[in-house]
Amino acid sequence: MLVKYAGYDFSIPANPSVVVSSGDNDRVDILMFKYDHPERSGYITLMNMSSDPTLEELQDVRGCDFATFIEDLITRNDDTTCNREPLEAFYKDLGESDFGSWDGKDNSKWLYMFDMDKSLIYLISPGEKIVQIATDMLNTERELKAVINQYVK
Fold this sequence. Notes:
alpha+beta; seven-stranded antiparallel beta sheet; two-stranded antiparallel ribbon; 9 strands
């Protein structure tokens, strides 16, 4: 199923049981798909974080902007300009998660992390657009990449 969201087309499994949308111009927009079928159950959430005011508010804690923080977290950048303490806390929390990135066709970065319980993909675009995809249904690199395949090299 093709879903248009935040200027992108995402390929997600068809026939969700429930679709929920939340947000307005002053808040982060969220679009959630819940699946409750015998052959597939779980959720996929799309969140446009570009206008999330808390990202800027926490910049002092992170020591860098959110896009840099996420990229340095997922790529495990040893030369980060971000504060080490929050990064180390995330590493401890994420445990054995797999991390990686794909280069986008439009100079964007697609960063991902997954384990057997949950997966996250972050789009960091050149125009400072940040979109998060969260799911408990897709837990392999191949399944995650299929959602955004048309945008990655």
